[in-house]
Amino acid sequence: MSMQNIIQSIAKLVDIHTYLLEISEQKTEAIKKGTIDELQALLTKERKYTQLLEQIEIDRMEKVNAWLSKQGNPSEQAEMTVTSMLEMLENEREKLELANITTKLTHTITELKQQEQLNRDLIDQSMKFIHMSLNMIQPTIENMNYNKHQSSSGTSKRSLFDSKA
After folding, report:
1. Of 68, 77, 89, 132, which has the most beta carbons under 10 Å away?
2. Which of 143, 123, 146 is nearest to 135 (CA)?
3. If you ran DSSP here, which 8-state letter would residue 148 be given?
C-alpha cells in the first residue's frame, strides 16, 4: 500500500468534514429561523455523511496498517501517529503532502467543532427562552388555588344570613 493511497483517504476525510461544516452552517441558519422541517432534513443529511465518514475512516486505518506492514513495522500499528509516519517517510514530496493534508483536516475538524458548539449554544438559548415563556404564560399552582391569605377587603367572617337583624 502506497502513501498516496493514505493521502487520498485523508483528502476524502477533508472533503466529508467540509460537507459536514456546510451542513452545520445551514443548521445554524435553520435554528435562527426556527424552521424545524429544514433542521430535520439537515440532520438526516448529516447522518448520511457521518456514516460515510466512518466508512472512509475504516478504509484509511486499513491502508495505514497495510503501509506499516509493508514498511516492516506491524508492531507499531496501535500507536502510529501522523508525526511518526512523517518520520518514517523518506520521500520529501510525500512528507509535505501528508503534513499539508493532515493540517487541513485538523483545521476543518476544529471549525466544525466550533460551529457545532455554536449550534448547541443556540439550541440551549432557545430552550431557555421557551421555558421562560412557558413559566410566564402558565399560572403557578399557588395562584390557581384559593388560599387562606386571600380575603375580601370589606367583608368580615360572618355568615350570609345576619341573625341579629
Report:
1. 68
2. 143
3. T
Report CA Rg, the chain: 31
Please check whether residue 49 is in contact with residue 23, taking contact to mean a CB–CB distance below 8 angstroms.
Answer: yes
d(CA 98, CA 119): 31
Give the rounded percent of residues in the chain with a pLDDT score beyond 90: 53
SS in 3 state form for 26-86? HHHHHHHHCCHHHHHHHHHHHHHHHHHHHHHHHHHHHHHHHHHHHHCCHHHHHHCCHHHHH
Cα–Cα distance between 155 and 140 in angstroms, integer?
27
Span 120-147, pLDDT tens digits: 999 999 889 888 888 887 766 555 555 5
32-57 residue pLDDT tens: 998 999 999 999 999 999 999 999 99
Among candidate residues 32, 30, 34, 53, the one with its CA nearest the CA of residue 43: 30
- pTM strictly above 0.90: no
| All domains in the chain, ordered by first residue | 3-137 (1.20.58)
Cα separation, 99 vs 139, in Å, equals 61
